[in-house]
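Tutorial sheet, problem 5. The two components below are modelled jointly, 622 residues in total.
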Amino acid sequence: MQICLQIFFDSLLLIGLYSIGALGFALIWGVLNVLNIAHGAFIMLGGYLTFLLWRNGLDPLLAIPATMAALFAVGWLIQRFLIDYVVSGPHSLGIALTYGLNLVLIGLALYFFTAEYRSINLPPYLRGYVDIGGAKLTYVRIVIMLIAFFLTACVWWFMDRTELGAAIRATRLDMEAARLVGIKVRTIFDLTTGISAMLAGAMGGLIALLHSASPAMGDQYLLQVLIVTVLGGLGSIAGPMLGALVLGISTSLVSNLWGATYSTLVGATLVLLVLVLKPSGLRGRAFYEA
Amino acid sequence: MPLSAARDRDGIVLALLVLGACCLPLVFGAYGLRVATMVAMYVALAQSWNLIGGYTGLISLAQPAFFGSGAIAALIFLVNGAPVWLAVLGSLGVSLAIAVMVGAPTLRLVGHYFVVATLLVSEALRNLVLNLNAFNFNGGISVNIVSKVGLTALSPTTYNQVFYYVMLGLATTAMLAIFALERSKWGLALRAIRDNQRAASALGVAATRLKIAVVLASAALVSLVGTAWAFWIGTVETNEAFSLTLTFEIIVMVFLGGRGTLWGPLLGVLVVLFINETIGVELAEITQVVSGVIVVLVVLLQPDGLIQIFRQGPRAFAPKTLAANLRRYRVR
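Model answer (C-alpha coordinates):
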Protein backbone atom coordinates (compact mmCIF):
# COMPACT_ATOMS: atom_id res chain seq x y z
CA MET A 1 0.00 0.00 0.00
CA GLN A 2 2.72 2.38 1.04
CA ILE A 3 4.82 1.63 -2.02
CA CYS A 4 1.78 1.97 -4.26
CA LEU A 5 1.11 5.44 -2.89
CA GLN A 6 4.78 6.36 -3.28
CA ILE A 7 4.70 5.23 -6.91
CA PHE A 8 1.47 7.16 -7.42
CA PHE A 9 2.93 10.42 -6.08
CA ASP A 10 6.25 9.95 -7.88
CA SER A 11 4.46 9.42 -11.15
CA LEU A 12 2.17 12.44 -10.62
CA LEU A 13 5.26 14.61 -10.25
CA LEU A 14 6.94 13.13 -13.33
CA ILE A 15 3.74 13.42 -15.37
CA GLY A 16 3.58 17.12 -14.55
CA LEU A 17 7.21 17.77 -15.41
CA TYR A 18 7.28 15.66 -18.57
CA SER A 19 4.00 17.17 -19.77
CA ILE A 20 5.23 20.75 -19.86
CA GLY A 21 8.56 19.75 -21.39
CA ALA A 22 6.96 17.60 -24.07
CA LEU A 23 4.18 20.09 -24.86
CA GLY A 24 6.80 22.69 -25.75
CA PHE A 25 8.84 20.21 -27.75
CA ALA A 26 5.80 18.92 -29.66
CA LEU A 27 4.76 22.50 -30.45
CA ILE A 28 7.98 23.25 -32.38
CA TRP A 29 7.94 19.83 -34.01
CA GLY A 30 4.32 20.23 -35.07
CA VAL A 31 4.26 23.84 -36.21
CA LEU A 32 7.77 24.28 -37.60
CA ASN A 33 8.62 20.64 -38.39
CA VAL A 34 11.94 21.12 -36.61
CA LEU A 35 13.33 18.51 -34.23
CA ASN A 36 14.68 20.94 -31.67
CA ILE A 37 17.76 19.35 -30.10
CA ALA A 38 18.36 22.63 -28.24
CA HIS A 39 15.22 21.99 -26.20
CA GLY A 40 17.51 20.32 -23.67
CA ALA A 41 19.63 23.46 -23.54
CA PHE A 42 16.48 25.53 -22.94
CA ILE A 43 15.65 23.28 -20.00
CA MET A 44 19.18 23.74 -18.67
CA LEU A 45 19.03 27.53 -19.14
CA GLY A 46 15.79 27.56 -17.17
CA GLY A 47 17.44 25.63 -14.36
CA TYR A 48 20.43 27.96 -14.15
CA LEU A 49 18.35 31.11 -14.45
CA THR A 50 16.12 30.05 -11.57
CA PHE A 51 19.22 29.20 -9.56
CA LEU A 52 20.83 32.58 -10.34
CA LEU A 53 17.69 34.54 -9.49
CA TRP A 54 17.38 32.65 -6.21
CA ARG A 55 21.05 33.30 -5.37
CA ASN A 56 20.44 36.99 -5.93
CA GLY A 57 17.74 36.99 -3.32
CA LEU A 58 14.55 36.22 -5.23
CA ASP A 59 12.09 33.76 -3.74
CA PRO A 60 12.41 30.52 -5.81
CA LEU A 61 8.69 30.44 -6.53
CA LEU A 62 8.85 33.97 -7.92
CA ALA A 63 11.98 33.05 -9.87
CA ILE A 64 10.00 30.54 -11.94
CA PRO A 65 7.75 33.08 -13.72
CA ALA A 66 10.73 35.42 -14.21
CA THR A 67 12.67 32.54 -15.76
CA MET A 68 9.77 31.74 -18.04
CA ALA A 69 9.55 35.32 -19.25
CA ALA A 70 13.28 35.41 -19.97
CA LEU A 71 13.18 32.08 -21.82
CA PHE A 72 10.23 33.29 -23.88
CA ALA A 73 12.41 36.14 -25.10
CA VAL A 74 15.33 33.76 -25.76
CA GLY A 75 13.11 31.45 -27.79
CA TRP A 76 11.65 34.36 -29.78
CA LEU A 77 15.13 35.67 -30.65
CA ILE A 78 16.50 32.23 -31.54
CA GLN A 79 13.57 31.66 -33.86
CA ARG A 80 13.87 35.07 -35.52
CA PHE A 81 17.63 35.02 -36.03
CA LEU A 82 18.44 31.32 -36.42
CA ILE A 83 15.68 28.79 -36.94
CA ASP A 84 13.81 31.02 -39.41
CA TYR A 85 16.67 30.47 -41.84
CA VAL A 86 16.35 26.67 -42.01
CA VAL A 87 12.59 26.16 -41.77
CA SER A 88 12.00 25.53 -45.46
CA GLY A 89 15.13 23.41 -45.98
CA PRO A 90 15.61 19.65 -45.57
CA HIS A 91 14.84 18.60 -42.02
CA SER A 92 18.42 17.52 -41.35
CA LEU A 93 19.44 21.19 -41.42
CA GLY A 94 17.14 22.01 -38.51
CA ILE A 95 18.60 19.13 -36.50
CA ALA A 96 22.16 20.24 -37.27
CA LEU A 97 21.45 23.87 -36.43
CA THR A 98 19.77 23.15 -33.11
CA TYR A 99 22.49 20.62 -32.26
CA GLY A 100 25.11 23.32 -32.82
CA LEU A 101 23.11 25.71 -30.66
CA ASN A 102 22.88 23.03 -27.98
CA LEU A 103 26.68 22.62 -28.04
CA VAL A 104 27.21 26.36 -27.66
CA LEU A 105 24.77 26.75 -24.77
CA ILE A 106 26.05 23.70 -22.86
CA GLY A 107 29.66 24.79 -23.49
CA LEU A 108 28.89 28.24 -22.10
CA ALA A 109 27.21 26.71 -19.06
CA LEU A 110 30.29 24.55 -18.47
CA TYR A 111 32.51 27.60 -18.81
CA PHE A 112 30.57 29.87 -16.47
CA PHE A 113 29.17 27.38 -13.95
CA THR A 114 31.52 24.34 -14.27
CA ALA A 115 30.08 20.84 -14.23
CA GLU A 116 29.12 21.18 -10.55
CA TYR A 117 25.53 20.54 -9.47
CA ARG A 118 23.92 23.76 -8.24
CA SER A 119 21.00 23.31 -5.91
CA ILE A 120 18.62 25.75 -4.33
CA ASN A 121 18.09 25.95 -0.56
CA LEU A 122 14.37 25.84 -0.08
CA PRO A 123 12.70 28.64 1.89
CA PRO A 124 11.15 27.52 5.21
CA TYR A 125 7.58 27.40 3.90
CA LEU A 126 8.54 24.77 1.31
CA ARG A 127 10.24 22.47 3.80
CA GLY A 128 8.35 19.75 5.59
CA TYR A 129 6.04 17.09 4.31
CA VAL A 130 2.64 15.53 4.67
CA ASP A 131 2.31 11.88 5.47
CA ILE A 132 -0.35 10.13 3.43
CA GLY A 133 -0.72 6.47 4.28
CA GLY A 134 2.98 6.15 5.06
CA ALA A 135 4.10 7.79 1.83
CA LYS A 136 6.02 11.04 2.31
CA LEU A 137 4.92 13.92 0.12
CA THR A 138 7.15 16.96 0.58
CA TYR A 139 5.64 20.45 0.21
CA VAL A 140 8.02 21.31 -2.60
CA ARG A 141 6.83 18.32 -4.61
CA ILE A 142 3.20 19.33 -4.11
CA VAL A 143 3.94 22.87 -5.26
CA ILE A 144 5.88 21.67 -8.31
CA MET A 145 3.03 19.35 -9.28
CA LEU A 146 0.50 22.15 -8.94
CA ILE A 147 2.59 24.57 -11.02
CA ALA A 148 3.14 21.95 -13.71
CA PHE A 149 -0.53 21.04 -13.97
CA PHE A 150 -1.51 24.72 -13.90
CA LEU A 151 0.85 25.41 -16.81
CA THR A 152 -0.50 22.44 -18.77
CA ALA A 153 -4.02 23.79 -18.28
CA CYS A 154 -2.86 27.24 -19.40
CA VAL A 155 -1.38 25.79 -22.60
CA TRP A 156 -4.63 23.98 -23.31
CA TRP A 157 -6.64 27.14 -22.71
CA PHE A 158 -4.30 29.21 -24.88
CA MET A 159 -4.22 26.77 -27.79
CA ASP A 160 -7.89 25.95 -27.66
CA ARG A 161 -9.69 29.06 -26.52
CA THR A 162 -7.77 32.08 -27.76
CA GLU A 163 -7.44 33.63 -31.18
CA LEU A 164 -3.63 33.40 -31.10
CA GLY A 165 -3.84 29.70 -30.31
CA ALA A 166 -6.20 29.26 -33.25
CA ALA A 167 -3.71 31.12 -35.45
CA ILE A 168 -0.94 28.73 -34.38
CA ARG A 169 -3.16 25.77 -35.14
CA ALA A 170 -4.07 27.22 -38.52
CA THR A 171 -0.39 27.80 -39.39
CA ARG A 172 0.32 24.24 -38.45
CA LEU A 173 -2.46 22.91 -40.64
CA ASP A 174 -1.64 24.90 -43.73
CA MET A 175 0.93 27.66 -43.80
CA GLU A 176 -0.12 29.10 -47.14
CA ALA A 177 -3.80 29.20 -46.25
CA ALA A 178 -2.95 30.83 -42.93
CA ARG A 179 -1.00 33.50 -44.77
CA LEU A 180 -3.95 34.07 -47.10
CA VAL A 181 -6.31 34.82 -44.23
CA GLY A 182 -3.88 37.39 -42.88
CA ILE A 183 -1.92 35.46 -40.27
CA LYS A 184 1.65 36.71 -39.97
CA VAL A 185 3.38 33.36 -40.23
CA ARG A 186 6.80 34.60 -39.12
CA THR A 187 5.34 36.10 -35.97
CA ILE A 188 3.48 32.87 -35.29
CA PHE A 189 6.77 30.98 -35.64
CA ASP A 190 8.47 33.36 -33.20
CA LEU A 191 5.60 32.97 -30.78
CA THR A 192 5.67 29.18 -31.08
CA THR A 193 9.36 28.89 -30.26
CA GLY A 194 8.93 31.49 -27.51
CA ILE A 195 6.20 29.45 -25.84
CA SER A 196 8.17 26.25 -26.32
CA ALA A 197 11.29 27.73 -24.71
CA MET A 198 9.14 29.21 -21.94
CA LEU A 199 7.73 25.78 -21.09
CA ALA A 200 11.22 24.24 -21.24
CA GLY A 201 12.41 27.01 -18.92
CA ALA A 202 9.61 26.24 -16.48
CA MET A 203 10.54 22.56 -16.55
CA GLY A 204 14.21 23.41 -15.92
CA GLY A 205 13.35 25.80 -13.10
CA LEU A 206 11.13 23.24 -11.41
CA ILE A 207 13.82 20.58 -11.75
CA ALA A 208 16.39 22.96 -10.24
CA LEU A 209 13.99 23.49 -7.35
CA LEU A 210 13.43 19.76 -6.94
CA HIS A 211 16.98 18.47 -7.54
CA SER A 212 19.66 20.76 -8.98
CA ALA A 213 20.89 22.49 -12.12
CA SER A 214 23.84 21.12 -14.08
CA PRO A 215 25.14 21.36 -17.67
CA ALA A 216 24.21 17.72 -18.29
CA MET A 217 20.59 18.09 -17.17
CA GLY A 218 19.38 19.24 -20.59
CA ASP A 219 20.45 16.21 -22.57
CA GLN A 220 19.25 13.91 -19.83
CA TYR A 221 15.72 15.35 -19.82
CA LEU A 222 15.67 15.80 -23.60
CA LEU A 223 15.70 12.02 -23.86
CA GLN A 224 12.65 11.74 -21.59
CA VAL A 225 10.92 14.53 -23.53
CA LEU A 226 11.56 12.70 -26.81
CA ILE A 227 10.15 9.49 -25.38
CA VAL A 228 7.05 11.26 -24.08
CA THR A 229 6.47 13.15 -27.33
CA VAL A 230 6.67 10.08 -29.54
CA LEU A 231 4.70 7.91 -27.11
CA GLY A 232 1.81 10.35 -27.09
CA GLY A 233 2.06 11.45 -30.68
CA LEU A 234 1.87 14.95 -32.03
CA GLY A 235 -1.09 17.07 -32.74
CA SER A 236 -2.95 17.31 -29.48
CA ILE A 237 -2.58 18.52 -25.93
CA ALA A 238 -3.69 15.13 -24.67
CA GLY A 239 -0.96 13.32 -26.66
CA PRO A 240 2.08 14.50 -24.69
CA MET A 241 0.06 14.21 -21.47
CA LEU A 242 -0.81 10.61 -22.25
CA GLY A 243 2.83 9.97 -23.12
CA ALA A 244 3.88 11.58 -19.85
CA LEU A 245 1.35 9.42 -18.02
CA VAL A 246 2.72 6.21 -19.54
CA LEU A 247 6.38 7.18 -19.06
CA GLY A 248 5.79 8.69 -15.59
CA ILE A 249 4.05 5.60 -14.28
CA SER A 250 6.45 3.12 -15.87
CA THR A 251 9.52 5.10 -14.76
CA SER A 252 8.44 5.39 -11.15
CA LEU A 253 7.23 1.79 -11.12
CA VAL A 254 10.48 0.47 -12.53
CA SER A 255 12.76 2.63 -10.39
CA ASN A 256 10.84 1.73 -7.22
CA LEU A 257 10.85 -1.98 -8.01
CA TRP A 258 14.09 -2.71 -9.90
CA GLY A 259 16.19 0.45 -9.72
CA ALA A 260 16.59 3.62 -11.73
CA THR A 261 19.05 2.12 -14.21
CA TYR A 262 16.23 0.30 -15.98
CA SER A 263 13.93 3.29 -16.45
CA THR A 264 15.42 4.63 -19.71
CA LEU A 265 15.46 1.11 -21.10
CA VAL A 266 11.77 0.67 -20.35
CA GLY A 267 10.88 4.07 -21.82
CA ALA A 268 12.86 3.49 -24.99
CA THR A 269 11.45 -0.01 -25.43
CA LEU A 270 7.92 1.33 -25.03
CA VAL A 271 8.51 3.95 -27.72
CA LEU A 272 10.03 1.45 -30.13
CA LEU A 273 7.05 -0.85 -29.61
CA VAL A 274 4.63 2.01 -30.24
CA LEU A 275 6.54 3.11 -33.33
CA VAL A 276 6.46 -0.39 -34.74
CA LEU A 277 2.82 -1.04 -33.93
CA LYS A 278 1.37 2.43 -34.43
CA PRO A 279 3.76 4.84 -36.13
CA SER A 280 1.73 7.95 -35.40
CA GLY A 281 1.96 7.57 -31.63
CA LEU A 282 -0.56 6.38 -29.07
CA ARG A 283 -2.95 9.21 -29.74
CA GLY A 284 -1.47 10.66 -32.88
CA ARG A 285 -3.54 12.82 -35.17
CA ALA A 286 -2.67 14.27 -38.50
CA PHE A 287 -2.93 17.78 -37.05
CA TYR A 288 -3.72 19.67 -33.92
CA GLU A 289 -7.03 18.83 -32.31
CA ALA A 290 -8.02 19.41 -28.72
CA MET B 1 35.12 18.88 -66.71
CA PRO B 2 33.30 15.80 -68.05
CA LEU B 3 31.97 13.45 -65.41
CA SER B 4 34.24 10.54 -66.36
CA ALA B 5 37.34 12.74 -66.17
CA ALA B 6 36.27 13.96 -62.72
CA ARG B 7 35.88 10.35 -61.61
CA ASP B 8 39.28 9.38 -62.99
CA ARG B 9 40.77 12.32 -61.11
CA ASP B 10 38.98 11.22 -57.93
CA GLY B 11 40.43 7.72 -58.33
CA ILE B 12 43.97 9.00 -58.83
CA VAL B 13 43.78 11.39 -55.86
CA LEU B 14 42.38 8.62 -53.67
CA ALA B 15 45.16 6.21 -54.69
CA LEU B 16 47.83 8.84 -54.01
CA LEU B 17 46.29 9.71 -50.64
CA VAL B 18 46.23 6.07 -49.53
CA LEU B 19 49.78 5.57 -50.74
CA GLY B 20 50.91 8.67 -48.86
CA ALA B 21 49.05 7.55 -45.72
CA CYS B 22 50.81 4.16 -45.89
CA CYS B 23 54.20 5.91 -45.66
CA LEU B 24 53.22 8.16 -42.73
CA PRO B 25 54.60 5.84 -39.96
CA LEU B 26 58.05 6.36 -41.51
CA VAL B 27 57.99 10.06 -40.66
CA PHE B 28 55.58 10.33 -37.71
CA GLY B 29 56.46 9.89 -34.04
CA ALA B 30 54.17 8.28 -31.46
CA TYR B 31 51.93 11.33 -31.07
CA GLY B 32 51.64 11.96 -34.80
CA LEU B 33 50.76 8.32 -35.39
CA ARG B 34 48.09 8.46 -32.72
CA VAL B 35 46.49 11.48 -34.37
CA ALA B 36 46.76 9.81 -37.78
CA THR B 37 45.02 6.70 -36.41
CA MET B 38 42.25 8.91 -35.02
CA VAL B 39 41.87 10.61 -38.41
CA ALA B 40 41.59 7.23 -40.16
CA MET B 41 39.03 6.05 -37.60
CA TYR B 42 36.93 9.19 -37.97
CA VAL B 43 37.11 9.00 -41.77
CA ALA B 44 35.83 5.42 -41.68
CA LEU B 45 32.99 6.41 -39.34
CA ALA B 46 32.17 9.58 -41.26
CA GLN B 47 31.95 7.77 -44.58
CA SER B 48 29.77 5.06 -43.03
CA TRP B 49 27.39 7.76 -41.84
CA ASN B 50 27.66 9.57 -45.16
CA LEU B 51 26.36 6.41 -46.80
CA ILE B 52 23.19 6.60 -44.72
CA GLY B 53 22.83 10.29 -43.95
CA GLY B 54 24.42 11.85 -47.02
CA TYR B 55 23.41 9.62 -49.88
CA THR B 56 20.20 8.08 -48.57
CA GLY B 57 19.06 11.07 -46.49
CA LEU B 58 18.29 9.03 -43.38
CA ILE B 59 19.51 10.91 -40.30
CA SER B 60 20.39 7.76 -38.40
CA LEU B 61 21.49 8.01 -34.79
CA ALA B 62 21.79 4.23 -34.47
CA GLN B 63 25.54 4.27 -35.17
CA PRO B 64 26.47 4.10 -31.44
CA ALA B 65 24.55 0.83 -31.26
CA PHE B 66 26.79 -0.67 -33.97
CA PHE B 67 30.01 0.89 -32.73
CA GLY B 68 29.28 -0.15 -29.15
CA SER B 69 28.15 -3.65 -30.00
CA GLY B 70 31.23 -4.10 -32.17
CA ALA B 71 33.46 -3.04 -29.29
CA ILE B 72 31.68 -4.67 -26.35
CA ALA B 73 30.80 -7.96 -28.07
CA ALA B 74 34.42 -8.35 -29.17
CA LEU B 75 35.53 -7.74 -25.57
CA ILE B 76 33.11 -10.33 -24.26
CA PHE B 77 34.31 -12.88 -26.81
CA LEU B 78 37.94 -12.27 -25.88
CA VAL B 79 37.38 -12.31 -22.13
CA ASN B 80 35.66 -15.66 -22.47
CA GLY B 81 38.68 -17.09 -24.22
CA ALA B 82 37.68 -16.87 -27.88
CA PRO B 83 40.47 -16.34 -30.43
CA VAL B 84 40.79 -12.94 -32.10
CA TRP B 85 39.30 -13.97 -35.45
CA LEU B 86 36.22 -15.33 -33.70
CA ALA B 87 35.91 -12.13 -31.65
CA VAL B 88 36.02 -10.00 -34.80
CA LEU B 89 33.55 -12.13 -36.77
CA GLY B 90 31.33 -12.76 -33.75
CA SER B 91 30.98 -9.08 -32.89
CA LEU B 92 30.34 -8.31 -36.55
CA GLY B 93 27.58 -10.91 -36.47
CA VAL B 94 26.07 -9.38 -33.33
CA SER B 95 26.07 -5.91 -34.89
CA LEU B 96 24.52 -7.16 -38.11
CA ALA B 97 21.84 -9.01 -36.15
CA ILE B 98 21.06 -5.77 -34.32
CA ALA B 99 21.03 -3.89 -37.64
CA VAL B 100 18.49 -6.32 -39.07
CA MET B 101 16.30 -6.11 -35.97
CA VAL B 102 16.54 -2.32 -35.87
CA GLY B 103 16.40 -1.69 -39.60
CA ALA B 104 13.27 -3.63 -40.38
CA PRO B 105 10.90 -1.61 -38.17
CA THR B 106 12.63 1.80 -38.18
CA LEU B 107 13.11 2.10 -41.93
CA ARG B 108 9.35 2.29 -42.35
CA LEU B 109 9.28 5.46 -40.28
CA VAL B 110 9.42 8.84 -41.91
CA GLY B 111 10.96 12.18 -41.00
CA HIS B 112 11.79 12.94 -37.41
CA TYR B 113 10.26 9.68 -36.20
CA PHE B 114 13.15 7.81 -37.80
CA VAL B 115 15.66 10.08 -36.04
CA VAL B 116 14.03 9.61 -32.66
CA ALA B 117 13.62 5.85 -33.10
CA THR B 118 17.28 5.33 -34.00
CA LEU B 119 18.36 7.56 -31.11
CA LEU B 120 16.29 5.48 -28.72
CA VAL B 121 17.69 2.23 -30.15
CA SER B 122 21.17 3.42 -29.21
CA GLU B 123 20.12 4.57 -25.76
CA ALA B 124 18.13 1.40 -25.09
CA LEU B 125 21.07 -0.77 -26.09
CA ARG B 126 23.45 1.28 -23.94
CA ASN B 127 21.19 0.81 -20.92
CA LEU B 128 20.73 -2.87 -21.70
CA VAL B 129 24.49 -3.43 -21.79
CA LEU B 130 24.97 -1.40 -18.60
CA ASN B 131 22.54 -3.76 -16.89
CA LEU B 132 23.98 -6.91 -18.44
CA ASN B 133 25.31 -9.46 -15.97
CA ALA B 134 26.51 -12.47 -17.89
CA PHE B 135 29.58 -13.96 -19.59
CA ASN B 136 32.02 -12.41 -17.07
CA PHE B 137 30.56 -9.01 -17.93
CA ASN B 138 28.93 -6.72 -15.37
CA GLY B 139 28.02 -3.58 -17.23
CA GLY B 140 31.67 -3.20 -18.09
CA ILE B 141 34.99 -4.99 -18.08
CA SER B 142 37.88 -3.70 -16.02
CA VAL B 143 40.37 -6.06 -17.69
CA ASN B 144 42.78 -4.62 -20.21
CA ILE B 145 42.36 -6.90 -23.19
CA VAL B 146 45.52 -5.84 -24.99
CA SER B 147 47.20 -9.03 -23.71
CA LYS B 148 44.36 -11.12 -25.16
CA VAL B 149 44.63 -9.68 -28.67
CA GLY B 150 47.74 -11.84 -29.08
CA LEU B 151 50.13 -9.07 -30.02
CA THR B 152 51.97 -8.82 -26.69
CA ALA B 153 55.26 -9.75 -28.31
CA LEU B 154 55.22 -6.49 -30.25
CA SER B 155 56.85 -3.30 -29.03
CA PRO B 156 54.42 -0.43 -28.27
CA THR B 157 55.51 1.34 -31.46
CA THR B 158 54.79 -1.66 -33.67
CA TYR B 159 51.55 -2.25 -31.80
CA ASN B 160 50.36 1.26 -32.59
CA GLN B 161 51.51 0.88 -36.19
CA VAL B 162 49.45 -2.29 -36.56
CA PHE B 163 46.33 -0.44 -35.49
CA TYR B 164 47.18 2.52 -37.67
CA TYR B 165 47.17 0.21 -40.67
CA VAL B 166 43.98 -1.51 -39.49
CA MET B 167 42.18 1.82 -39.21
CA LEU B 168 43.69 2.99 -42.48
CA GLY B 169 42.39 -0.18 -44.12
CA LEU B 170 38.90 0.47 -42.77
CA ALA B 171 39.01 4.10 -43.84
CA THR B 172 40.17 3.09 -47.32
CA THR B 173 37.38 0.53 -47.54
CA ALA B 174 34.86 3.20 -46.61
CA MET B 175 36.27 5.69 -49.11
CA LEU B 176 36.31 3.01 -51.82
CA ALA B 177 32.72 2.08 -51.02
CA ILE B 178 31.61 5.67 -51.56
CA PHE B 179 33.86 5.95 -54.65
CA ALA B 180 32.32 2.82 -56.16
CA LEU B 181 28.83 3.98 -55.21
CA GLU B 182 29.34 7.27 -57.07
CA ARG B 183 30.21 5.34 -60.22
CA SER B 184 27.35 2.84 -60.03
CA LYS B 185 23.64 3.05 -60.67
CA TRP B 186 23.04 2.32 -56.98
CA GLY B 187 24.41 5.73 -56.05
CA LEU B 188 21.90 7.36 -58.37
CA ALA B 189 19.13 5.15 -56.98
CA LEU B 190 19.99 6.15 -53.41
CA ARG B 191 19.95 9.85 -54.29
CA ALA B 192 16.63 9.38 -56.02
CA ILE B 193 15.26 7.80 -52.81
CA ARG B 194 16.67 10.69 -50.78
CA ASP B 195 15.17 13.36 -52.98
CA ASN B 196 11.78 11.76 -53.54
CA GLN B 197 11.16 8.22 -52.41
CA ARG B 198 7.71 7.95 -53.91
CA ALA B 199 8.91 9.03 -57.35
CA ALA B 200 11.92 6.71 -57.11
CA SER B 201 9.71 3.74 -56.23
CA ALA B 202 7.37 4.56 -59.08
CA LEU B 203 10.33 4.39 -61.46
CA GLY B 204 11.20 0.92 -60.23
CA VAL B 205 13.84 1.59 -57.56
CA ALA B 206 13.57 -1.08 -54.85
CA ALA B 207 13.68 1.55 -52.10
CA THR B 208 13.22 -0.61 -49.02
CA ARG B 209 15.66 -3.29 -50.13
CA LEU B 210 18.29 -0.69 -51.03
CA LYS B 211 17.85 1.12 -47.72
CA ILE B 212 18.28 -2.11 -45.76
CA ALA B 213 21.41 -2.93 -47.78
CA VAL B 214 22.83 0.50 -46.99
CA VAL B 215 22.05 0.19 -43.29
CA LEU B 216 23.71 -3.24 -43.17
CA ALA B 217 26.80 -2.06 -45.03
CA SER B 218 27.14 0.97 -42.80
CA ALA B 219 26.55 -1.10 -39.65
CA ALA B 220 29.19 -3.64 -40.66
CA LEU B 221 31.82 -0.95 -41.19
CA VAL B 222 30.99 0.88 -37.97
CA SER B 223 31.05 -2.38 -36.04
CA LEU B 224 34.50 -3.28 -37.40
CA VAL B 225 35.77 0.18 -36.48
CA GLY B 226 34.33 -0.31 -32.99
CA THR B 227 36.11 -3.66 -32.64
CA ALA B 228 39.41 -2.21 -33.86
CA TRP B 229 39.01 0.74 -31.48
CA ALA B 230 38.40 -1.60 -28.53
CA PHE B 231 41.49 -3.68 -29.36
CA TRP B 232 43.55 -0.53 -29.83
CA ILE B 233 42.76 1.18 -26.54
CA GLY B 234 42.41 -2.02 -24.50
CA THR B 235 40.07 -0.92 -21.70
CA VAL B 236 36.64 0.05 -22.85
CA GLU B 237 33.95 1.76 -20.85
CA THR B 238 30.36 0.94 -21.84
CA ASN B 239 29.16 4.54 -21.82
CA GLU B 240 32.07 5.55 -24.00
CA ALA B 241 31.51 2.73 -26.49
CA PHE B 242 27.84 3.64 -26.87
CA SER B 243 28.46 7.38 -26.72
CA LEU B 244 26.02 9.45 -28.76
CA THR B 245 28.50 12.31 -28.66
CA LEU B 246 30.83 10.45 -31.01
CA THR B 247 28.06 9.99 -33.53
CA PHE B 248 26.99 13.61 -33.31
CA GLU B 249 30.64 14.61 -33.80
CA ILE B 250 30.74 12.43 -36.91
CA ILE B 251 27.53 13.95 -38.24
CA VAL B 252 28.92 17.43 -37.66
CA MET B 253 32.05 16.49 -39.63
CA VAL B 254 29.99 15.17 -42.53
CA PHE B 255 27.79 18.27 -42.56
CA LEU B 256 30.79 20.56 -42.28
CA GLY B 257 32.63 18.96 -45.19
CA GLY B 258 29.63 18.32 -47.38
CA ARG B 259 27.18 15.45 -47.10
CA GLY B 260 26.57 13.19 -50.05
CA THR B 261 30.04 13.76 -51.51
CA LEU B 262 33.22 11.68 -51.69
CA TRP B 263 35.64 14.27 -50.32
CA GLY B 264 33.37 16.27 -48.01
CA PRO B 265 33.53 13.94 -44.98
CA LEU B 266 37.32 13.66 -45.25
CA LEU B 267 37.58 17.45 -45.31
CA GLY B 268 35.19 17.73 -42.35
CA VAL B 269 37.18 15.21 -40.30
CA LEU B 270 40.45 17.04 -40.98
CA VAL B 271 39.01 20.47 -40.14
CA VAL B 272 37.33 19.38 -36.90
CA LEU B 273 40.27 17.32 -35.64
CA PHE B 274 42.63 20.17 -36.52
CA ILE B 275 40.50 22.61 -34.50
CA ASN B 276 40.32 20.18 -31.57
CA GLU B 277 44.08 19.61 -31.58
CA THR B 278 44.77 23.34 -31.82
CA ILE B 279 42.53 24.43 -28.98
CA GLY B 280 43.49 21.39 -26.91
CA VAL B 281 41.72 19.21 -24.43
CA GLU B 282 42.40 21.45 -21.42
CA LEU B 283 39.79 23.85 -22.73
CA ALA B 284 37.14 21.27 -23.58
CA GLU B 285 34.24 23.69 -23.05
CA ILE B 286 35.82 26.27 -25.37
CA THR B 287 36.25 23.58 -28.03
CA GLN B 288 32.58 22.76 -27.57
CA VAL B 289 31.47 26.37 -27.97
CA VAL B 290 33.72 26.88 -31.00
CA SER B 291 32.51 23.73 -32.73
CA GLY B 292 28.90 24.68 -31.95
CA VAL B 293 29.40 28.11 -33.49
CA ILE B 294 31.02 26.53 -36.54
CA VAL B 295 28.10 24.14 -36.98
CA VAL B 296 25.60 27.00 -36.77
CA LEU B 297 27.59 29.13 -39.22
CA VAL B 298 28.02 26.31 -41.72
CA VAL B 299 24.32 25.40 -41.60
CA LEU B 300 23.34 29.03 -42.14
CA LEU B 301 25.97 30.18 -44.61
CA GLN B 302 27.30 27.09 -46.39
CA PRO B 303 24.63 24.36 -46.10
CA ASP B 304 26.31 22.27 -48.81
CA GLY B 305 29.53 22.09 -46.83
CA LEU B 306 33.06 23.44 -47.12
CA ILE B 307 33.60 21.19 -50.14
CA GLN B 308 31.98 23.99 -52.14
CA ILE B 309 35.29 25.83 -52.11
CA PHE B 310 36.71 23.10 -54.35
CA ARG B 311 33.73 23.24 -56.64
CA GLN B 312 33.22 26.98 -56.95
CA GLY B 313 36.64 28.26 -55.92
CA PRO B 314 36.91 31.43 -53.83
CA ARG B 315 33.49 32.46 -55.11
CA ALA B 316 32.01 29.98 -52.58
CA PHE B 317 32.93 32.39 -49.78
CA ALA B 318 32.06 35.63 -51.51
CA PRO B 319 29.64 37.71 -49.42
CA LYS B 320 27.09 37.51 -52.22
CA THR B 321 27.12 33.68 -52.24
CA LEU B 322 26.91 33.54 -48.45
CA ALA B 323 23.96 35.94 -48.42
CA ALA B 324 22.21 33.85 -51.06
CA ASN B 325 22.86 30.70 -49.02
CA LEU B 326 21.45 32.40 -45.93
CA ARG B 327 18.27 33.33 -47.75
CA ARG B 328 17.87 29.97 -49.45
CA TYR B 329 15.87 28.10 -46.81
CA ARG B 330 14.45 31.13 -45.01
CA VAL B 331 10.77 31.24 -44.23
CA ARG B 332 9.12 33.67 -46.59
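Marking note: The two ends of chain B are 36 Å apart (CA to CA). Full credit if you identified this.
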